[in-house]
Each structure stands twice: as C-alpha cells, then as structure tokens.
Fold Glycoside hydrolase family 3 protein.
Amino acid sequence: MKITWIHVFSILILLACSIFVDAQEAYKDPSLSFEVRVEDLLKRLTLEEKITLMQDVSQPIERLNIKTYNWWNEALHGIARTGIATVYPQPIGMAAAFDQNAVFNVFNAVSDEGRAKNTCYSAQGEYGRYQGLTMWTPTINIYRDPRWGRGIETYGEDPYLTSVLGVAAVKGLQGPADRKYDKLHACAKHFAVHSGPEWNRHSFDAKDIKPRHLWETYFPAFEALIKDAGVKEVMCAYNRFEGQPCCGSNQLLIQILREKWGFQGVVVADCGAIRDFYNEGAHETHTDAASASAHAVLSGTDLDCGSSYKALAESVHQGFITELAIDVSVRRLLLARFQLGEMDDDSQVSWTKIPYDVVASRAHDSLALDIARKSMTLLLNKNGTLPLKRGGLTVAVVGPNAHDSIMQWGNYNGTPAATITILDGIKAALGKTDKLIYERGSGLVETTLLESVFNQCRSKGGPGFSARYWNNLKRNGQPDVSTRVTAPFNFCTMGATVFAPGVVLTDFSARYNTVFVPEKSGEVFFDFYVNGIVNLLIDNKEVKGVKANHGSRKMSHGLKVEAGKPYDIQIDFTYNRGDAQLLFDFGYKEEINIAKTVEKVKDADVVVFVGGISPSLEGEEMGVNLPGFKGGDRTDIELPAVQRALIKALKNAGKKVVLVNCSGSPIGLEPEIENCEAILQAWYPGQSGGTAVAEVLFGDYNPAGRLPVTFYKNVQQLPDFENYDMEGRTYRYMDEAPLFPFGHGLSYTTFVYGKPRVDKKKIKVGEHIKLRIPVTNTGKINGEEVVQVYLRKNGDVDGPSKTLRAFKRTVISAGQTVAVEFELSAKEFQWWNEASQSMDVSAGEFTVFVGGSSENERLATIEVALK
C-alpha cells in the first residue's frame, strides 16, 4: 500500500490523541511517582466523592476505577478478627521479653499474614472490615496506672522501652523503607495523653498537665515512631487535651505532630471520636456534625471512623470549611492507598506474592512459642522451689485460668488453629512416673461454679441441640443450614467467622432445640452472653428474652427441675447489629467448696495454682461491673478474694503453692508472697502459652522476662487515677518501695556484675560515650540476662530518680563472663530543660546505673559529665 501524507497525518493524530489520553489519566500509570498520580486523581474527584474517601468505609468510585476500601484493620499481636491467624502474647507480655529483635520478627510475620489474607480477600472481591492493609496498631500510650484496662495493649510504663519496641513493631509491619510499595501501614495510637479511665474517656479533659511530663513521658514514643520508623498513620484519642477534643486539637495535630515532628501521613480519628464533639454527655464542644467535622479536618484529622464526615458537604455549604481544605486530607488518603499498591494491579506489587500458607504456619507457631518463652517473668522463687523435678512427682493443677484458651488470646486477637492451655502444657511436660490432679477450684471472681448438664440433652438424631439457620431475620421458609451442636455454644461472627458453614454473617436467624432429661432434681440455670436477640422457650412457653443494642449482654434464667422428667428447650436467636455473639451453657450452680478442693489435692507434692484475671474483666470500655472492676478498668489491684482464700487454704493445709499469674495488669500480691513458694507472671501468653509456662515450671527453659511495669503493693500506693502528672507514678517518680520493681525478673542461675567503665567520663554536648560492663553467669546452667542502663541528671530535683536509656538481652553460658557494651549517643542524654521548656541535650553531670533491675540495690553506678 502506498503511504500518503494523509496516512502519516492520521497516524500522528492518533499518536497525539494517545499521548493526550495517557497524560489525562496519569493516575493510572504505575511508572509515575505516587505524588503525580495523586494530584491527577484528586482533580478528577467531585466534592461528594472526596468526602466518601474520608470515611473508614470508603465507597467505590467506579468511573475512576477506585475500589471500595475499609481502613479498619487490627494487628495488635497477630492479625485480628478475621478467622484463623497466629496469636502471639499480648503486647504487655511481649514487652516483658525486653527484646526488640524478637518483637520485629513477630510483626514481620504478622505483616506476612496480613498481606496474604488481603490478597485472598481481594481476589474474591471482598473489601470489608479487617480485610484491608491499614493496621490500627501499635498502642504506645504510657501505662501510667495499673487500673487502666487497656494497659494490656501497651508496652508498659517506660517511654524509652515503649519507643524502642514500638519502632520495632512498625518496621516489622510496614516492611523495608526502600521498597516501592509498603507492606502494610501501621498506626501509632492514641495521640495523646490517653490512658484511662475507660468509663469517662468520651468526656474526660486531660488538662493542666505539667509540660515536663508531656514531653518527657507522654510524647516521646509518638515522636520516635514518626522520626525513627516512619509510621504512616496516627490515631487521635477520644479524650480532650487542654479543652479541645484530641481529634480537633490544633496544638496536637498541627503544631506538634506535623510542624514540629514533620509527620506527613494520615491522621485517623478513633471510632466515634468526631461524634463525641457534639454528642450529649460527651465533649459537647460543637452543636452538630457539620461544625464538628469541619473543625476536625481543619485541625488535621483526615479520616473519620464513623459517619460524622458525611456532613462535610453541609460544612462546605455553610462556609465552615472550603473544598481546598478538604483536598489536604484527601491528598494524604490517596497517597497512602498508592503507597500500599492498593490502587494498582497485583502484578505490580511484590507483596501480593506472599502465599496464603504463611497464615498460622509452623514457622509462625515457632515464633509464637519463642516470644511466649521470652515473656515469662519469674517474680518469686523461695528456696529453689522451681524448677520442679520430674520422677514420681504428683502435681495438682488448680485455678480458673488453668484450662482457659480464650484467656490466653488476650484482646484484639485472631483465632489460632490450636491453643495449648496451661493444663495441656503441664500434662505434656510430666514424666512417665509423674501424676496429675486437676481441680478448677474457683472462678475468677464469682463464688459459684457451674456444673454443666449439656451432656444430658438429646435432640432428634443425636446428642446436644439440633440447629437450624435461616439467611433471613424472620426464619422464613426452609432452613438454609441444618446441623447439630454437641458442646456449650461459643458462636461469634467477629473476624468474619460464621455461626456455621453456609450461614451469612449478618441478617440471619437461628433456632436450637433439644430435650433435657435431668439426672437429679434441683435448680438449673441457663446462662447466656448475647449480642443479638435471644428468646428462651421451655415446654413451648417463652420464659426469658434479651435484646442487645450496643455490645454483648448477659441473661440468666433459673428453672426448678425433677429428675427423669423431660423438658423441651428451644432457643431462638436473631441477628441485630455489629458482630453477632451467642455464648450459652446451663447447669446446676454450687457454692465453691474450698475444703473439698483442698481434700481433692491432699496427695499432691506441689499445687500449681493458675489464677489472676482475664481479658473478660479488663480491657476497652467493657460492661463489666463486678467487685474490683468498672467498665474494663479496675477499682483495686488485688488478686480476687475467692482465689486469695483458696491459695491461703492450700498453704494452711501444708501444700507448696506455685502461683502462675495470668493478667495484663500488675496484681497486688502481698499475701501471695507469704502463701506461695514461687510466682510466675505469665501475662496473656497467646496460643503457645501452655507450653512456655510448662517449660519454665520444669526447667526446660530458663526464664529471663522482666517487668515492663511496676507491680504495686496496693491501691494505697497510687495517686488519683484521673491525675496525669507523674509524681508518685511508675519507677521513675515513685518514692515508696513497690511489691516488684520495673525491670525485675529472676532466673534459675545467678549473674554478677563487674565494675562499669566508659571510654571517657567527660564529653562535649552532642558526643557519645561507650559503656562496657562485665557480667558473669556464676551458676550451673546457661541463661539470659537483661542488662539495663538507666540515667539520672544530677541536681534535677523535680526529674525522675532514674530513667531507662538502654537495654540488651544477652545469652551467657554457665561460668562465662561477657563484656556487655552500649553506645550512649546524644539522644540518650536528652533531658528536660526548664528554661526552654523542652527536651534537649545540655551540659551537666549524670549518674549512669547498670544492672538487672531498676532496684537501686541491684545497680552499679558510674559518673559522667557533659560540658
């Protein structure tokens, strides 16, 4: 074919059009920078589309190929609320390991599972809550008071330890900084001065706090995660700060976060926090959603977890905010999605190649066991009671937490493929000639125990209850699923876990039927814990019902029964809102009989009492109001009275008692020091906790955990819970002797410290020093020592008595001496400057403390001077 100028002109026109189209759709081009793509996409969005992108459930914009995205996901100590996942110890337990490398390894594995799950969900077109790439963790608030229920989510009371471990968590989650796409995004929360009480967090004003305590205690971890880890999200807190809600605080979010620290990422509001601006009984700083939302955006809050930002269109209409101001937040939100590769095809993003079989893999199981071992903290060991010696040993395992897998999971958790309870672990650890006695003995707080009669039920075709499910709310038509339940009900849709295969997650209903024939006469109690609507029918007559509108609720019903008489039992359940939940068992209740328990364990050589508390009692804004507990917080810190009484009775009967204390918070254990031969703090140790506990009890693992939080004697040692100044709080400002000090933890071997030395005792401001101390394992077995370095600026009468500035978990073989070395940089010598009202490095004399605990008697000292 002869090519004419017309052909050439046509080709040029087509090329020009192609170039023009490509230029007009730069946001689709993965070869361009994220910033260029963001600007191109931003100008294509309408105001209404921008607003929907500023809500945690971001709706799709199909004309621009923007998928729906749900920003809310959790990974506090493993991928949470989305079915099977590896469950590591609660963060307070991980903190007890004093090992930043171990924490990094855990969160690197967590991010593998998060990416694999997201890839799987996306391939199925699922973009729901807990399926995305933005993890709202870690919690780096300072655990200033042991009564705070959410302290279990933190890395303890020390700002330096929290900073180091928080940085490790963020780096593990987000992946290498030099990769084109981020692995996941982490979120530092909750900014700022947020650590209880839970019951008034929606109205509490943290005000008149001394500037020193803000900059020296509450702010450092946030600054470290921004500057040292490049965290991509920050969550603002529910409470007010100096009169303004934190999510509307220009001082916090603009002046400090963005201008002073240079944070460029996304600020997300805690869920419902914007609503608190105008809700009655909350902050009430604004009159409506339109004014509140505009104020929050102008103050730097980009994303609303909630529905308040829907009013931003009205905000613009009323002149509270301009579209250009809204663009500032949308720009950051779009950039985050590009950085994650969420706006590109999977083929462009290497992280999408992580196979799904990493989820709950053997390698991750090993990591869960490793960090659980490292978290075990031996508090007391009289006369070498531990480790226990196998061979003809009779061990009695007693206590409410001995065989409770759910307790071990903590909160904000996933569901492990398998959990080794502490009872399971001890059983597996026994020798061939050893014997085991198990007796629960008591509940956590309650003075009665339920003797279940679930095994005395039969329905058509077999034991237990017949179960029918409808994927509608009215039980219309034939059931969509029919099955059988042969154990007490434990159903919950949290983490996209269905009640039964084939049942939808929402808008479903169920009916459970059985015939109960009691073996003895008496009163039977039906106990429910429900999120949804439940009706209980006995012999076709409704006897009790409950509807939970916000969170789960308890329901109980008593029925007097005659032996041998059949009773028709029917339970109707209907989904209402949120995550559906149905826990149910029934049986006879009997008062705890301490004498009976003591008699049952009379032949034991040692009693391992597995007690403490549980995430069902302490946590985030809970409905628990039992003696010692209020709304997830604690009103005292003692071991619950029923457990204390049983331990004392065992002691009085001549038994050696080893207390394994499971808790996320410090427990007042003064009487237990007298009544127990040994105390092991096991925290909430995750899926492999039972193995880790048993290995320590029998000496297969030499413990080296250290307390990341002070264990106080009682509440009399604590200041007012609502006072955020640090005087009298934590090891840094406490004058009295605690029960167990920060950094405390025993070993089965002994370590002796030599004289610490520095390469120079006088340095110029801004220089660093090298510190070296010989540590000798003088015992007969290998062990690990956590060498801790504290500083005090001499002459600073208002400052901390000492504050952690370095630590190193070190393996030292029996009889070996290791020279443990530290480099203290200018950053470690930062101190409060009263004149400038800031943290800086300035001339002065410092005392350096080195040892295995914050306790003065265990610390060697050396003086250095900055000039």
Remarks:
- The two ends are 87 Å apart (CA to CA).
- The chain has a mean pLDDT of 94.
- The chain is about 25% helix and 25% strand.
